Amino acid sequence: MRAGIVLLTEDGVAAIERVRDGSTYHLLPGGQVEDGESPEEAARREAFEELGVLVKIRGLVAVVHFDLRTQQYFLAEPIGGEFGTGNGPEMTSSAESAAGSYRAVRLPVGELVGRELKPKPIAAALAQAPDPGWLLDEWLESPVVFEEV
């Protein structure tokens, strides 16, 4: 299982920019849930490793089914740390490495689809919402489930 966060501020949505094999795309921060760890704990850990930010998990907002895997995304709010200082193992690889490079970025909501933010269903819903903050609050009430192909 993968756990990730949706971190929306006035500067945009937190994302990880990946450059790999000559392609650039973006992902919501997150990663594999480790043994003995809850999805919420994994989401907090990944936020710190990838973004350098301590977050409070407000709740589950989306579940994405992709390639027979389940991904859970939690609405998060920053409570400490410094954006862009993540030092997890993946954050030190270069674009030429097999894993490619990783960099913390903030994407304006209007650019989520054009920047290839994954998971695409979450990006599309946020980009189309008149108020993404309101949409995320609605998702807290009833998390959405997406099938991504």
Automatic annotation (TrEMBL):
Entries under InterPro entries matching the protein: Nudix_hydrolase (IPR020476), NUDIX_hydrolase-like_dom_sf (IPR015797), NUDIX_hydrolase_CS (IPR020084), NUDIX_hydrolase_dom (IPR000086)
Presence of the UniProt keyword Hydrolase in the record: yes
Molecular-function GO terms, alphabetical: hydrolase activity
Record carries keyword Chloroplast: no
Pfam families: NUDIX (PF00293)
Domain Nudix hydrolase: 1-142
Signal peptide feature range: none
Keyword tags: Hydrolase, Magnesium
Gene3D superfamilies listed in its UniProt record: Nucleoside Triphosphate Pyrophosphohydrolase
Requisite cofactors: Mg(2+)
Family: Belongs to the Nudix hydrolase family.
Name of the protein described by the UniProt record: NUDIX domain-containing protein
